[in-house]
Amino acid sequence: MMGVLQGFTLILGIIGAGYLAALCGVVKGEQRLVLNRVAFYVATPALLFAVLHDSDPGVLLSPVILVTSLAAVLSAAIYVTASRLWFRRDAASTTLGAAGAGYVNSNNLGLPVAVYILGDAAYVAPLMLVQLVVFAPVILAILEATRGNQRGAVVALGRAASNPIIIASLAGFAVALLGSPVPELVLGPIEMLGSAAIPMVLLSFGISLRGQRALERGTGRAAVFAASGIKVLGMPLIAWLLARAGGLDPHETFVATIIAALPTAQNVFNYAATYQRAELMVRDTVFLTTFASLPVIAGIAWLLSA
């Protein structure tokens, strides 16, 4: 559990630094969006290429990744159904809420969880790959389609495909698939840029907390509670049921359930802030799931590793 605690401490520390920067007037108002834009268009693509260029594409077909991916899709579908029945939202907000319910923090929290609880960081990389290569293009295509243009989903999907995050992910995956070495002269600057991505997103997240309390009235609390509940409780339960039904062995079941319990990824907040859609709702979902997931992960680890 020490690795998980270190991961949470790291995240909360940088968020706190962002809040203090706003409190002291270092960054004011919409200035924080500069961090989101640099992270979205420059640093995050560099990070994703650096992570994916030496990954193993074959792990995409492992039983664990199939279970966790299906659990994410079902969790998102449950959120969409709940949204249509109880708190109707526009397409962008519904998409981001569904992403909050199923898109896990597979990087800065997933890696310490994989290393210190699951015993192998390779368990998280496949889900990261699926989220970047499959889930992210769908999310971005819908967000592009809601920007006010009437050119259709096909054009919006084309615009999403030209997004630097998607291009970098596909390029990294292609390099891994081909087994092509990347010269250190090229990889060095990419890795340095990529190392700035997560801190910038977390700093912007902390800055956004200044002057606005979490879960205020009128910020979509019903949607936040629904997405958070599905993410922290529903998705691990779905993954556990799918693993049992699919005949996974106890260790694979344990791995799939733990991964599904990870909180909502900061990437979802970055998408919301960049496209300026449902930002407060997504911010509160990330905030709530980050805190709530720790006892849930600890409980799953205790129950399934016994």
TrEMBL record:
GO cellular component entries: plasma membrane
Residues that span the membrane, as ranges: 6-27, 34-53, 59-82, 94-117, 123-143, 155-178, 190-210, 222-242, 254-273, 285-304
Main localization category: membrane
A Pfam family: Mem_trans
Signal peptide: none
Biological process annotations from GO: transmembrane transport
Keyword Membrane found: yes
Keyword Iron recorded: no
Subcellular location, record wording: Cell membrane
Classification via InterPro entries: Mem_transp_PIN-like, Na+/solute_symporter_sf
Keywords carried by this UniProt record: Cell membrane, Membrane, Transmembrane, Transmembrane helix, Transport
Organism whose genome encodes this protein: Leucobacter chromiisoli
UniProt protein name: AEC family transporter
Membership in a protein family: Belongs to the auxin efflux carrier (TC 2.A.69) family.
Domain of life: Bacteria
Membrane-topology annotation of the record: Multi-pass membrane protein
